[in-house]
Amino acid sequence: MKTWMIAMMLAAAIPAAAQGFQPGSGELMKRDPDANLPPSPYAAKPLPEIKGVVSWKTLADVKTLKQKDRFIPDFGKSVAALDRQEVKLQGFMMPLEMGDRQKRFLLVALPPTCAFCMPGGPEQVVEVRAKTPVKYGFEPIVISGRLTLLRNDEMGLYYRLTDAAAVGR
After folding, report:
1. Is 54 domain-assigned?
2. Most C-beta atoms within 10 A of its C-beta, which of 4, 51, 94, 154?
3. Does the residue 23 lie in any domain?
């Protein structure tokens, strides 16, 4: 159920330009339905690690434990040390709302290839709440903010970055 809800949120959030919507016209622009975005050069290999930026390898230091009727994260020491700390993360933006600037979005380890599919597990997704809207794009971005480890999130997320700001593309 949670995966379905996230997929629906993501599908609704595809930027209008990516959907072929022409503002003010009330209809979709004519386009080739078979035309796809070119494959991302980042799809075949992970993003390179950057000094001073927390890697996705570090965020993957988490196990999933079953507790009663639900699954909860069990964070390793390297991740637990980051809780409530100012960090920088690098990844790809997955918007949660319409528009070319996003104040709340998902930062993911792999480039999105489908509006209905999550590009990885919960250890490869960070909910970002930015101080000021961040411009949407297909290239990786670096975001800084306060990282919070989510131990009981109803959407199944493990990480949230608050008071975030883009520091580079």
Report:
1. yes
2. 94
3. no
Give tens-digit pLDDT for 84-107: 999 999 999 999 889 999 999 999
Cβ proximity of 79 and 61 under 8 Å:
yes
Domain holding 63: CATH number? 2.40.50.870
Domain that holds residue 114: 2-15+47-168
Is the Cβ–Cβ distance between 162 and 148 less than 8 Å?
yes
β-strand pairing of 141-149 with 159-168: antiparallel
pTM over 0.85: no
